[in-house]
Amino acid sequence: MPKKRSATGSVQPLAAKAGELSIGNDLRFTRLGFGAMRITGAGVWGEPADRSEAVRVLRRAIELGVNFIDTADSYGPGVSEKIIADALHPYPANLVIATKGGFDRPGPNRWVENGKPEHLRAACEGSLRRLRLDRIDLYQLHRIDSKVPAEDQLGTLKDLQAEGKIKHIGLSEVSVQQIQQSRKVVPIVSIQNRYSVADRGSEDVLEYCEKENIAFIPWFPLAAGRVSDAGSPIAEVAARLKASPSQVALAWLLARSPVMLPIPGTSKVEHLEENVAAAELKIDKSGILELSRLARAS
Q1: How far is CA 269 from CA 16, 55, 228, in A?
Q2: What is the number of structural domains in the chain?
Q3: Residue 210: is it exposed, middle or buried by C-beta count within 10 angstroms (0-12/13-18/19+)?
Q4: CATH number of the domain that 60 lies in?
Q5: Which stretches of 150-235 are assigned E, i.e. beta strand?
Q6: Residues β-bridged to residue 171
Q7: At 13, which helix (H) or strand (E)?
Q8: Known catalytic membership, residue 195
Q9: pLDDT tens, position by position, for the chain (298 residues)?
Q10: Rg, C-alpha atoms of the chain
């Protein structure tokens, strides 16, 4: 069922059960988004094996109440953004599409940082064309390229923002120090670092985001499938809760922090529906601690 009836009798989309999050004081969306990397081909390269299923996934996500989609120009490259536009344009009024720039893609599973100002400008303008947008609500620097002064990379995004091509700016895979330095150049509203119940190397970054009210977008929120391994402690907890391990891992993220915005991705409608159903699974403080302890021990 795509929607549930609330106590007041109104029909509520399932994803809305995860609660809401706002960024920049002007964008508000449900706290369970969709990551669009997996709607491309093998190695995040080329067209998906089943393009029609990718389109169905995106449309079903909207039906379920998901209104935050994360993508990047490097997914495909360009393929994910094109499919999003083909599936959803003209976009629902409340849909936020976030994209990223900062990588060259010489081939499948190959990623080369490129933070040169001319590349970032071309990447942003290419994303605007493929997504059929006049302005990107959230544009994230995919990586801070160590070969290019950070001020030049951030300055380019600041210029694009001043030109009206970007509304808000975020960063990906950064340290607390890098966030602090970046905020001296331009306001930062989101951080996208790898994080899950089984991988908490960015705990200090999450805590900083909580303190500063910056959205934290964990990529690989399901630890690339590790949380679903048969016999894992998380799988045992899931069986007790009559849920899937993936649902438990996502519910843990939602309970872990009010600034958390999980973006589980998939190329299958069935998996999408399973992930979004995590919005109804509530984990209390003791459950957070138990899962944290079990994940460390596994």
Answers
A1: 18, 10, 18
A2: 1
A3: middle
A4: 3.20.20.100
A5: 166-172, 190-192, 215-216
A6: 141, 191
A7: strand 11-13
A8: no
A9: 445 444 444 567 899 999 999 998 899 999 999 999 999 999 999 999 999 999 999 999 999 999 999 999 999 999 999 999 999 999 999 999 999 999 999 999 999 999 999 999 999 999 999 999 999 999 999 999 999 999 999 999 999 999 999 999 999 999 999 999 999 999 999 999 999 988 889 999 999 999 999 999 999 888 755 666 656 678 878 888 889 989 999 999 999 999 999 999 999 999 999 999 999 998 877 777 777 776 665 5
A10: 18
Catalytic residue among 75, 139, 195, 208: 75
Tokens of 95: 């849909």
Amino acid found at 27: L
Say which residues have a Cβ less than 8 Å from residue 24's Cβ, sequence separation at least 6.
167, 168, 187, 189
Q: Which domain holds residue 18?
A: 12-223+256-267
